Each structure stands twice: as structure tokens, then as C-alpha cells.
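Honest question from a wet-lab person: if I give you the sequences of every part of a complex, can you actually get the arrangement of the whole thing, not just the pieces? Trying it with mine:
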Amino acid sequence: MNTRNTRQKDIIYQTLSEMDSHPTILELYEAVKDRDASVGQATVYRNVSKLIEEGMVFKILTSDGCCHYDANSRQHVHFFCNHCHRLFDLYDIDLKFLDKQVKNSKYEVDSFYVLFEGICDKCR
Amino acid sequence: MNTRNTRQKDIIYQTLSEMDSHPTILELYEAVKDRDASVGQATVYRNVSKLIEEGMVFKILTSDGCCHYDANSRQHVHFFCNHCHRLFDLYDIDLKFLDKQVKNSKYEVDSFYVLFEGICDKCR
DNA sequence: AATATTATTGATAATTATTATCAATAAGGA
DNA sequence: TCCTTATTGATAATAATTATCAATAATATT
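Yes, you can. This is the full assembly:
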């Protein structure tokens, strides 16, 4: 037996999947606690790392220091507002061109990641 | 007088500019110390932040926890090898199509950032 | 179903990265 | 040259993440 399916891992993945925001670990931990207060913070860290390795969850990198997480596998761009610090999805940016170049690359590209930074429509 | 040009800031920018790797703060700090051992670590943090605000330096985000920095303003893609953890530039990826979409966006996009992750040619 | 094995957990300590504090220094205008 | 105050270096404080370890529970074996 190599890995085990645990109740905690299920709860963590389900909770993240149902969040449309892109929570930090701490925010995810708070949401998980609402479902099961016994789940520890270290368990959230551990399982999110596992889910990333399994390709079920993606790490989102922004300028604001800490990491955000996303269980949405549909290809999309992230937008980070430097003013209100909101992080959200853009589905109307076409990435087919990039996809094609990735496939023709001499490197083995497992994933790619596109982040826009600027001022969102609400803030300006 | 609002901001001042300091010897330390010059050294930090020059040092980063001449590094073709994309150092972390600590690696940059070590390189800076070789030029002037009196420069403190906090000064490196502070000046890199300033240089980012001024658009002279870019923060590179990878999966490996800490941030890397780049003084190269030429538009390019970063590749992070999940095996050897090297981070390097790709200049042969065409981003014109992204540029175009950025300009037509309803958001004010100040910068965008493209990262590929996978296995580099040396590692496979 | 009962048992044995060991991956995983929760709690907490340790580590690491980054930011804040503050007296001393030095950039640059007067 | 003097004055003002932004910046510095050293260090403390904070925040994010990882390591430790006994207790628990998932699952393979009996």
C-alpha cells in the first residue's frame, strides 16, 4: 500500500473545488474548518501539495507573497489587480497559439501559466 | 527631494544585470557582498522592491517557494525545470498574439508573465 | 471479521523568507 | 558648508512553510 484515501483529503479537495475564489492555504483552511473543525492546518498544507503532484490542483503565483490555489482545470489566464489585490480568472484570452508552441517545443512542457497584472475594471 | 540615488542601489542593480541566472534575494545578496561586503541583506530586499516598482527589475514566480529576480527587460518566457530546478529564459516563444489581446483588454494590463514548467532538454 | 502494518493525522516545534524598527549615516538642496 | 531627511545596517518581529512525533485510521493480510 502506497497512498491512502483519507476523509481529510476528500474534504480539502471538495472545499477547494467549490470555492470560486482562489484561496491561500489559510483561507482554504478556514473553509475546511467550517466543514470539519478537527482538520489541522498542516494537513491542509500536506494534501494540497499532494493534489498538486497529482495534477488535481494548481498553484497560482502572484506578486503578493503567498500562494493561491485553484482546483479548476479548464485552461485560463489569471488576472491580479495591483490595487485591490483581487485575483480572478479570464476565460476570454485565447491561448491556442501558445498551446501550439508548447507542443512543438524541444522541452517537455508539462504545464504553462499565464498571469496578467494591472488594474481591474472596478478599480479604475 | 523624494528619492535618492545610493551607491548600494547602483551596486545591486549592476550586479543583478550582469547575472545571467535568475537569482533569489539570497543569491543576489551573496553576489553583491563580493563587490561590497558592507551592504546589508535588508538593503538588498528594499532596493529590489524599489527597482520592481520602477520597472527596472521583474519578479519571477516559480513553484519552488522563493522568488527569483531578473533585470532583463526584453520580453521572454521563463522555463522552470521541475527536475533540476533550473530557471532559464526562452526567447523563441512568440508572444505577439498575447500582446495584442492584452492591448485590447478591458482591463488595464501593466505586465504579463508566462511561465512554462516541465523537464528541460538536459534532464530528459 | 479480526489483526497487523504503516501512511496519515493533529499538535507543535523548527525553519525560512520577508518586513518592521531604529539609531547612525549620507545624498543632495539651500 | 550646513541642514533636512531618505536610506542604511543591524537586528527584532512577523508570516509562511516544513519537520517532528506519538496517536490514529486506512487497507492488505489472515
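Two things worth pointing out. Chain B touches chain A through 31 residues (CB under 8 Å). The mean pLDDT of chain B is 91.
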